[in-house]
Amino acid sequence: MSTFDESTIQTSYEYIASRLPDEFKTVKLGIICGTGLGTLVETIDPATKLELHYADIPGFATSKVVGHASKLVFGHLGDERTPTVFMVGRFHFYEGHTMQQCTLPVRVMKLLGVETLIVTNAAGSLNVKQKVGDLMVLQDHLFLPGLVGSHPLIGHNLESFGPRFPAMSDAYNFRLRQLAFKAGHQVGISLNDMHEGVYCMVSGPSFETSAESRLLQQNSADAVGMSTVPEVVVARHCGIKVLGISLMTNAVVISRGRNAKMQVMIDAGLPCDDLIHEDIDRDALVANHEEVLETGAARALDMQRLVKKIADLLVLDGQK
User: Fold this and answer.
1) At 3, is the pLDDT very low, low, confident or very high (cuts 50, 70, 90)?
2) What is the pLDDT of residues 215-267, one digit of tens each?
3) Are the CB atoms for 95 and 89 separated by under 8 Å?
4) Of 36-45, 62-71, 108-117, where does the model show the most confidence?
5) CA 320 to CA 312: how far, in whole Å?
6) Buried b or exposed e, range 74-87, using 16+ CB within 10 angstroms
7) CATH of 6-252+288-318, one of 3.40.50.1580, 3.30.2350.10, 3.40.190.10, 3.40.50.1980
8) 117 and 32 in contact (C-beta within 8 Å)?
């Protein structure tokens, strides 16, 4: 789909809406589960859980990535029993989908009544203060594919959803960020293990080289991943408030590593003071998808408790 067809959104919405019981005809909270974080759906009340597989929904794609179950799940979340729609798995640009295809579910969520969207992802840490297993609340983002023309809002603007030139300086709602840290504290997650920072989206699917990682780090990025930002952009275009949470699943390799020429000169006893050399075996530090999944599984219960508490705080905050 090179340009976006508004009728596709409506068809997807009508299919979903026709299968929803009255209690889910209007759903104010949407959650997108990132790689390895699909267990977030286990926080909902199983008695009212409703699942729709992406393959059955017109216009939806199915993710082929391990850790993405490809289903839309409705249920009541938290003690306040908030009607919620979960995307258990997302579509990725690197799978060959267009940016418009990747963000179609967010448009559908808008038609379903979603007012707040929580987007989660697995990310690589570029900030030495963020350990593997730590959480980062998104304060801002760098959208590298979008800056060079791969943007979900390219093409005819959908005026019924939002303006031609939406602002992104307020992409991540300040009040929602406050509630995320408050929720973390209340469920026993150390605030030393929760951070606030800038997420950078790259297209993938290859992990970054160390030179690319240093470039991102030097340009204010605290974490890097291959998703999330297109969904955030479209959500803000629709007027949906956004909270983003990254789970640090690996430490990005930033070191230059050993210099082959220098090593030969050292071995030969030749002077080599002008060469950069770090005695680090980068081959032992390479990122891999298995590590991402393992960290997601290890942190699953904390993420469940956090998101569940955020949903409850949203309700209580709206009652003030």
Assistant:
1) very low
2) 999 999 999 999 999 999 999 999 999 999 999 988 888 877 777 888 888 88
3) no
4) 108-117
5) 13
6) bbbbbeebbbbbbb
7) 3.40.50.1580
8) yes
Residue 152, both tokens = 């979900």
pLDDT digits (tens, 9 = 90+) for 145-184: 999 999 999 999 999 999 999 999 999 999 999 999 999 9
Instruction: Please give the DSSP secondary-structure letter assigned to residue 44.
Output: B
* Amino acid type, 197: G
**Contact (Cβ atoms closer than 8 angstroms) between residue 82 and residue 28:** yes
Please tell me whether the overall predicted TM-score, pTM, comes out greater than 0.85 for this model: yes
Between helix 289-298 and helix 300-318 the angle, nearest 10°, is 60
Q: Are strands 82-88 and 29-33 parallel, antiparallel or unpaired?
A: parallel
Instruction: State whether residue 85 is helix, strand or coil.
Output: strand
Residue 168 CB contacts under 8 Å (≥ 6 apart), including other chains: 233, 236
